Amino acid sequence: MRTLDDIEVKNKTVLLRVDLNEPVNRETGELTNIHRIRQSIKTIKELTDKQAKVVILTHQGSDIEYKNFYSTKSHAKVLSQLLNKEITYIPDIIGPYALNTIQNMKPGEAVILENVRYLSEEQTLFEKSLKLTHAQQTKTILVQTLSKLADIYVNDAFSAAHRDQPSLCAFPYLLPSAIGRQFEQEIKEINSLIFAKSKNTVFVLGGAKIDDALDIIGHILENDICNTVLTGGLVGNLLLIAKGYNIGEQSRALLEKRGFMRRLDEIKAIVEKYKNAILTPIDLACVREGKRVTHSIDKCSDALYVDIGEETVKQYDAVIQNADSVFVNGPMGIFEETLSEYGTKAIWESLSNTKAHTIIGGGDSLTATAKYNLETKMDYLCTGGGALIQYLSGKKLPVIKALEEGEKNDI
Ligand code: ADP
Ligand code: MG
Q1: Closest listed ligand to the CA of 362
Q2: Single pTM value for the model
Q3: Distance 364 CA to ligand 2 centre (A)
Q4: What is the pLDDT of residues 31-84, one digit of tens each?
Q5: Distances (CA, A) of 321 to 219, 328, 358
Q6: Cα(261) to centroid of ligand 2, in Å?
Q7: In whole angstroms, what is the distance from residue 237 CA to residue 330 CA?
Q8: What's the rounded Cα separation, in Å, for the pair 10 and 224?
Q9: Which ligand does the CA of 248 lie closest to?
Q10: Ligand 1: does its nearest atom lie under 6 Å from the Cβ of 370?
């Protein structure tokens, strides 16, 4: 894919698709985190410094998962503060106000259009039920209208690269396109893991998204991407069951309730095939009468196991200290609560001490990193959630496919 090094943007109108989707306090309209906005600054600054006319497009909120649809007005304010330059908020996307503004922009200026998901064709429900091809997406009114006003399309939205939506996938077929600096860095970081085959690469997979973890485990071990997988959280619990351990009816029932037991046969085959590479906890902690209690995995009681135990931490710490790079997705336990945060806190501290290159991905994993004040101690914090998982599972992301195919069509 082309980067900003490969395109001339001076005096050109650049349509810049970013992902500034942030958590919002609906009462006050304030954004409660601005990590993604911060990460988008380098591309916006480079484009305006190079005297492009920059039209920023983002979504905020999702029609299915989060119900946090919100205007981009707050984003404009934060962007202006961070860039120390006015980024004008346009309360319009494809209407006369937006078009008129874009046509009258001067080089070096930047505006942000209204939340692109206010258009139905940008919504996930639309994507999932209609499954438009990229060719069909180029016919949508958003793409038809804005492609006529822009000279260049830049996509800097790696974290939305698993979405198959017009603002993300259609423009590369109509305009010369490139990825932005954030997208470039994210891919570079992840590729440094995937292609460093001679190194000792460790994956730490925990949390509650078991389907994602299994997709990743299968791909990275099958393709020799990683030497050791350390497991914790619900992922670890499920793998223990697959190995034949009895970790109590309550723990089993929770996994059953979340629908994960249906994959048990497949998981059994994976843990058997890679028994040397996949480590599972050797002890687990539960909470009993307001106290943390740890049991070795062959002596589990009928409790709900909410964290990895102290012996597991010691074993995992040694692996992490010996690694060349470590990728982490998912906490080791319910770190939100005091009695079950030990495992996550200790493993995160181990990550902050190792000489290995450490990459953290996933919303809750980033929250844990912030909770333990370790943000500056890790080497890279990924902005991508779903996109990152799909990339690590070896799936082609729709946005990458569009950018690569679009490149072939360019003049
Ligand atoms: P990420 O957002 O980093 O990708 P996930 O969303 O997969 O991580 O998982 C995070 C959630 O998993 C947290 O809310 C945490 O409380 C929960 N969790 C971790 N371990 C357990 C456990 N043993 N039992 C129940 N929930 C767990
Ligand atoms: Mg999460």
Answers
A1: 1
A2: 0.89
A3: 5
A4: 888 989 999 999 999 999 999 999 999 999 887 765 678 999 999 999 999 999
A5: 24, 14, 11
A6: 20
A7: 13
A8: 44
A9: 1
A10: no
